[in-house]
Amino acid sequence: MEMTRRTILSIGGAGLAAAVAGKAWGQSLPTILNQRYPDPSVEILDPSFAKYRIYSASVEKLATGMRWAEGPAYFPEERCLLLSDIPNNRIMKYDEVSGTFTVFRSPANFANGNARDREGRLITCEHSMTRRVTRTEKNGSITVLADQFEGKRLNAPNDVVVRSDGTIWFTDPLFGINGNYEGEKAEPEQATTNVYCLDIDGKLKAVITDLVNPNGLAFSPDEKKLYVVEWKGTPNRSIWSYDIGSQGAVSNKVKLIDAADFGALDGFKVDRDGNLWCGYGSNGALNDDATSSDVAGRKTYELKGSSESLDGVMIFDPDGKPIGFIRLPERCANLAFGGPKRNRLYMASSHSLYALYVGTQGAG
Predict the structure, then answer these.
(1) 2 marked ligand binding residue
(2) CATH superfamily membership of 28-357
(3) Which terminus of the chain, N or C, has fewer Cβ atoms within 10 Å?
(4) What is the reported pLDDT for 2?
(5) What is the residue extent of each domain of the chain?
(6) Each residue of 131-186: pLDDT tens digit?
């Protein structure tokens, strides 16, 4: 719009401000969930967490419209975040400069976990139908990195992390082939649900074979420890800690975290201080007995843990002690640190994408 005296008078002062702001910013503004500072949804469970809460930072809702948001990965070169919308069989892209939210890839072979490798390429776990781990090259072509182990198809690659030596580590539970909502129901060919390491020479090794449906995974800042979520097999969801040897050998299995509050540990990331920022929500466990409701006197089996009190991000210190909680209106499945200074926490949560600036940075 050409700003003449006539157009200025016609749109008025408020209209001019809006027009100029729209042209200058060129982006959609996020939705602020809480107007007060400090944001009451950022809860301090231990005084040690206080330094990570920025007093004047709020949880922001950036985008919505997904069916099950997962696998966020940040790409600093383009200042964008990629994340999976599994049931819709697509990968979405959030541009943090323009604020736009668009489809990056569709179909996406029911992609789940994503990661950026050391050369800035996209590593993706396609957890159904193709059941493989791929790399998107700079020219847009796709390279298959792993789709079988010992001559049999992988189960459903779930989450992935790239170590500084270039090795790629990923979990392989059954979720993607358990039904038809997030892919295609199929019979597993592997006898166990493993954690794999893909060497830079292309050799695939099963480094952990005794976890039932391993899920999220991450390394400590010095990469001497590997943390893995076990979805099932213990009374509650757990995070196990392993020592990593000089040649990538895994040893000394120790339970670091036990979600005894019926929380659903899922994807997580580690900050530079070694704290674990974990996607959280109800694990879906039901009470043993039915309770009466106010609707027509029906009896229902309710959750053991309240979704309203569990949905969000739980932060644990390196010893496994809960120190903070970010309360969200939706269950958080996975998260990633992003932004130019790696201090913006992106949270992929059910239908939506949320963000919060924090007083730390992602490790790595």
Answers:
(1) no
(2) TolB, C-terminal domain (2.120.10.30)
(3) N
(4) 41
(5) 28-357
(6) 999 999 999 999 999 999 999 999 999 999 999 999 999 999 999 999 999 999 99
Tokens 């196990």 appear where? 240
Tokens read off for 348: 């992929």
Give the H/E segment covering residue 123.
strand 122-126
Q: Check: CB of residue 81 under 8 Å from CB of residue 94.
A: yes
- Has 88 been labeled as part of a binding site? no
**Any binding-site annotation on 39?**
no
Torsion angles phi and psi, residue 309, rounded to 5: -95, -10
Residue of 272, 156, 275, 161 whose CA lies nearest to 216: 161
How far apart CA 116 and CA 108 sit, in angstroms, is: 17
Element (H, E) at 35: none
Q: Is 266 annotated as a binding residue?
A: yes
Which residues carry out catalysis? 266
Residue 313's closest CA among 280, 345, 284? 280
| Span 21-34, average pLDDT | 63
CB contact set of 19 (below 8 Å; sequence gap of 6+): 1, 11
Categorize the per-residue pLDDT at 25 as very low, low, confident or very high, splitting at 50, 70 and 90: very low
Tell me the one-letter amino acid at 325.
Answer: F
pLDDT of residue 294: 64
Q: Does the annotation list 70 as a binding residue?
A: yes
Q: Which amino acid is at 65?
A: G
